[in-house]
Structures are given as structure tokens and as C-alpha cells.
Amino acid sequence: MRSKLLSNFISLFVLQGGQYILPLITFPYLARVLEPEGFGIMGLSFAIMQYCMLFIDYGFNLTATKKIAENKDSKRKISEVFWTTMASKCFLAILVFLFLVCTVYAVPSFKEISFIILLASTQLIGSVLLPGWLFQGIERLWAVTISSLAARATAVPLIFFFVHNPEDLWLAVVIQAMTTNMAGIIACFMVYRYKAVCFEKISPQQVKEALKDGFPVFIASIAISLYTMSTTVVLGVVSSHEQVGLFNASDKIRNAITSAFLILGNAFFPRVNALLSESREKAGRFIKNIIFGQCLVTLATSLTLFFLADFLADFALGEQYSNAAHIIRIMAPMVFLVTTSVIFGNYMLLPFGYRRIYTQVPTIMAFIHLGIVFPMAYWLGAVGGAWTLLLTEILSFLALLFFCFRLGLFKMVFGTPHE
Fold this sequence. Notes:
- The protein is mainly alpha-helical.
- The chain has 21 helices and no strands.
- The longest helix is centred in the first third of the chain and has 32 residues, at about 1-35.
- The protein has one domain (about 1-415).
- α13 (about 240-260) runs parallel beside α17 (about 325-330) and α15 runs antiparallel to α18.
- Keywords: Cell membrane, Membrane, Transmembrane, Transmembrane helix.
- It comes from Kushneria avicenniae.
């Protein structure tokens, strides 16, 4: 089991390295070539797509992964989960696209960039096709690594070759959207090529049960997204595209660093569930090691990002994004806050059965965030959005910390639990 976990870590580091380095090559180029307004429109379009993909994923990255991890020795059960999840995602994708079209033409600020938004929506196909949850559950993350890196590597030369000025915005959107689709196609081919699943007939009732089982995680994911992804959309509604571009460019730097740690959860989450099926003691020891190791590293990373904000803003964005360093400094503590909150929620509350609290905390935070972000974004633009996001993450961190203490989960992790 240790060798498989090591293999997953290596795959994740290669994957995250590629996902960080490859966009890092094109990100400064696009920020300069498209200019703040064009970069803001592109960022707003893809932020809307993140919401759409969140509905399509429906929490399956956790619920389907958990089911597969618990039944990894049964190909029939894995196949049943696979086909049920794929059918559920296809059903959700149709509903999401219809709702998206109606929304785009109903909201004036979206209607004026409707062509770009609809071009970005082509990546929803890849969201359906990419079975990352399958490879996470069977702990073969190298498949996700190969498919994602191959697709991203293809996009790099295409962006430099075709995108040269703000008028090429539509090409930049198409190329990046196609990356997701290509990754999904490659991953599906690998599922077929290596016979990871066999065909299993499923019923509408199974799809209904899958949607019902994933609903609490879906609500939590939506609630979390309301304060992690909504800021870009809110800025697009109440502020200018330039402010969206400034916030989006700054947040991309912070988010790239945060994602380097969050993606490790793709290896940690199935392992926590697998160990928990053996004993609470084994799962507790594993979580303790994550807490000690990851929290120290992410705290140091937040401090480094804070002090290097000026250098990173100048190096990655240039003088067109004048205030980016200030926004990066505001969001620097979030590297520690977000990754530690994921430990409390995904590795402690959710696996140990506290789904209600796992759902309620981000829901409350979402309402708090939405109550503050509109006036803050309206009066202070990108800076107001950054301060609101930081405040919400602090409150979320403290709430999750409180419940983990109150429910005795820290005592279980750091004490001597009995099976």
C-alpha cells in the first residue's frame, strides 16, 4: 500500500508541476496580450464555467471516489459506480447547458459577452468525460497525470502561435476550453484500453440514488464556491472588466500555489477512507501526519507569498496590473487557511460521518460572503473582493476548527483511540 501511495504522490507532483508550469508559461503572456479588459472577460467566462462544471461534477469527486475506494477489489461494483456516475453527469450537463443559455441572455452584463461565454462552455463536454474520480478511487492517478499534461502541453504552442492581440480573445478561450475536452477523451481511452471497467447495465433508479447520495457534498461544494469563485462573477456584474482582470490575475498566482497542495487530497482522501475501513486508529495516525506536515509547509508558503508579492506581480503581470501586489498580499494567508480547512472538512468531518456539519458550515459562510462581497466589490473593486474572500476563509477556518474540537476528532487523531 505504501508503494501505491508513493506512486500516487509522484503522479500528483508531476501532474501539479505540469499544471503549474504549463499555465505559468502562457499566463503572463495572455495577461499582457489581452490587456486587463480582455483578460477580465476571459476570467469571467471561465469563472461561470467553473460553476457549470461544479453542477456537473455534483460532488462525485468525493462520493464516487469513496465508493470505488471501498470496493476496489470488485470490478463489477467499480463498473456499476462508473456507469451510474457517467449517466448522472450527462443528465446534469444537459440541464446545466440549458440553464446557462437562458442566464446569459437574461443578464445584461453577460449578454454583451455571450459569444465568449458560449465558446467557453464547450469545455463542459470534457467535464463530463474526464473520470478523475475513477482513477482516484482505484489509486491509479498516473492516468489523470498523462491525460491532463498531454492536453495542457498541446495548448501552450497554440496560444503563442494564434493569440497576438486583444482581438484574439475568442481564440484564447477556444484553445483553453479544448484542453479540458482533450483530457477527457484521452482519459476515457485509457479506461477502455486498460479495461478498468466492464459494461454494466444501470437503471434510472440508480442514477436517482447517486444524485441523492451526492446531494450533501454537492450543497457543500456549491456553498464553498459561492465564496471562492463568486467574487469574479460579482465583480463582472457590479464593477468593470478591468477590475475583474486585476482580481483574476492576482488570484491566479495565489490559486496556483494553493492548488499544488489541494491536489494532494486526490491521494489523501481515498487513502483516509481505505484506512478508516480498517480501523479508526490507522486513519487517525495518517491524518495526524498530514496535519503536521502540510500545515507547516503551507504556513511557510503563505509568508513567502506575502513578502514576494511585489516581485511576483511585476514578473508575472507587468505594469498594466498596478495594484496586483497589494491584492496578492491580502490573499497570501489563504494558502494556509484553505488547505488546512480542507483537512478539517474532507479528511475529518466527512469520512467520520458528520455530513450535516460539513454542509452547514460552508452554507453559512456563503451567505455571509454574499452579504458583504456586493458592496465591497462595488465600492473597492478587486481590492474589496480580495478582503471579503480573506474574511470568509478566516471565519470558515475557525468554524471548522471549532467543530473538530467539539466533536472530539482532534482527540481521536492526537490521542490514543480504541477500535
